[in-house]
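Exercise 7. Predict the structure of TetR/AcrR family transcriptional regulator from Streptomyces flavidovirens.
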Amino acid sequence: MAQLRPGPPEAPFPCPLPGAREGRDPARAIKRGPSRVPAELVAATQRDRLYDGLVHTVAEKGYANARVTDICQAAGVTRPVFYALFDGKEDAFLATYRHGTHVLLRMMDAAYDAARDWQQGARASLGVLLELLARVPAFATMALVEIDAVGPRAREERARLLRHFHHFFAQAPTPPPPAEADELISAVVGGIYSTLCGYVADGRTAELPGQLPHLSFFLLAPFLGPAAASAALLSDSGATAKAP
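Solution. The predicted structure, encoded as tokens:
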């Protein structure tokens, strides 16, 4: 099963997450003058550049201090274009967040679906999440830390995202009593999410992939039991182990 592997910081990585590129990336420059580029393509390119510009601006300045002018400058896009695409800063933030989390979930789903069983799939999807956040720390800051400054609509978006993560537990073993499956899953998802937020807020986003063994154990143990969870992780890493 293919998994994303950490690479050197300078290594190219074709990541579609917002913030993976600079908004003013010359490869997406739209030439002036008469053009046969369809208007829909121009708008899509400008929107993508604004996604990137917003991520970098919010990560650098914080949501409260990020101005529409700053976002436009980071994206190389004019204010009239910004307001043709978004109602304002909050609307642009939410659109960027939805787009970025959709990308994350799509890549996590692919890793999960390629696995041979639930425990491998859950661990693989978690590994993809950690790796992508580490590779695009500006998006991690924007989506996990600065979202708290946006308001009720952003909190609703985050709640929907966390609820979607329950999908990765659909094939998990039934937890032992007295645990209720849905409540247990919410606790596990919330615990992992809180850990990620802490690392990102502390400026330790690059360390997230190294937390995969610990977070995987936290994910598996409530459903498999501690001994079986340890054995599963050792087996996945290529070692052999016997549960006592």
